[in-house]
């Protein structure tokens, strides 16, 4: 096969290149070869060349598309994975919101129950007299009623008038039901130990609290010579 070389100026080259591209050729050489084939009557060869050129272009485009797709696929799979995880996150978030809503409703119901119970107890207490309450509780410490009774002076004065034992302790007053006080005094007089652990075994919770308050207020002392406790009121 022979080779033909021609020299042309820059402008002509650009025009030929534009013409070649417009007719589907990749290079000027292919375009000129096709023109020569046509001029010598070899249409079949020209068509084959054009067909080959067309196929080459299509293959090139397909190759480019495939390579581009190969580059895109990893990102597409990652996007799909992110979309799936986002969907799962939204589902979990909605489930948590439902649980929180249910919990808030339960807390509200529980709070309402507490408020109703407290109101009921307050109403029941308001119907009872001070001495009735003392008979039930045996001992009333002032700090326990500080938030519920404003006029505590009148409260303790009334208890004292109705026969309760009212003691001026350290930082607070204590009202004791008369019979309970007498029994408490006897129990203390029979104590022959000042050991805290032994005392805790002998006295119940209310007695122990009253015992500690009297001791703290210097109204109850232990006589070491007699080995007995003495109430100074």
Automatic annotation (TrEMBL):
<feature type="coiled-coil region">
    <location>
        <begin position="79"/>
        <end position="120"/>
    </location>
</feature>
<keyword id="KW-0175">Coiled coil</keyword>
<protein>
    <recommendedName>
        <fullName>Ribbon-helix-helix protein, CopG family</fullName>
    </recommendedName>
</protein>
